[in-house]
Design brief:
mainly beta; three-stranded antiparallel beta sheet; 36% strand
């Protein structure tokens, strides 16, 4: 299996002293690993020290030349109206939760998250 993966560092000028490639290509067979998260793929490397690499499925561009579009149906997004009229986005899924309000940035929880937990 040949997997072409988007480089998350590609469009970040000034971080690297050299130009970063837009994509990386990896070859190997898919490996079943029990501790992988639902949005990840394990690919064999052929190296005994590092027998497999973990790839985020949402970064995969092509597999064997076929374009891949990954959507995670386990992730849900809610728009919640705040007490002062502002709208915040709450994302719930894959054992993670996130809110765009400033309170969540400090406390890692907020009333908007609690409001969506009943939905």
């Amino acid at each position: 299996m040949k997997v072409k993966v988007r480089n998350t560092q590609f469009n970040r000028p000034g971080i690297w002293m050299f130009e970063q490639p837009e994509f990386f290509e990896f070859e190997g067979e898919e490996v079943q690993v029990k501790w992988l998260n639902p949005g990840e793929l394990a690919l064999s490397t052929g190296n005994p020290e590092w027998p497999f690499r973990v790839i985020q499925r949402n970064l995969i561009d092509t597999i064997d030349g076929s374009v891949v579009k990954y959507t995670d149906s386990a992730v849900k997004t809610f728009t919640v109206k705040g007490s002062k009229g502002d709208h915040y986005t709450v994302t719930v899924g894959r054992n993670r939760v996130h809110c765009t309000c400033s309170g969540f940035q400090f406390r890692k929880t907020c009333k908007h998250v609690k409001e969506t937990s009943n939905a």
